[in-house]
């Protein structure tokens, strides 16, 4: 999904990758799951504009202080920023769904003669 039209860059791709990273670490490490600052910085660098998702990445980065990671579970500040990011990400998902629907319609509609 994250790479339907922009395989490597863009706000939607970066946000989608962040959620994937978080989910993977929670599955692997449970209550000890952490989000590394380096990963957030890397994804923030992939954002193309100064939009809402970029701002949420910047907000997440303020949580680190001098630390190289923050806990994922029981972290209300991180949760708030991720909820905001998810709301902004929905616009990208809607756009992707429309593009996929148009592609499928073109591929499976028989030409009229």
Provide a concise account of the structure shown.
The protein is mainly α and 113 residues long. It has helices at residues 11-29, 37-45, 52-61, 76-108; strands spanning 34-36, 69-71. The chain is built from four helices and two strands.
State the share of residues found in helices, binned by percent.
Answer: 55-70%
Q: Poorly predicted ranges (pLDDT <50, ≥5 residues)?
A: 1-6
Per DSSP, the total helix count is 4
Q: Tell me about the biggest sheet?
A: 2 strands, antiparallel
Number of domains: 1
| Oligomerization | single chain
- Structural class by SSE content: mainly alpha
What gyration radius follows from the Cα positions, in whole Å?
17 Å
Could you tell me the mean pLDDT? 87
Strand order of the largest sheet: 1-2
Proportion of residues in β-strands: 5-15%
What is the overall shape?
A: elongated
**CA(first)-CA(last) distance:** 35 Å
- Order of H and E elements: HEHHEH
Say how many strands there are.
Answer: 2
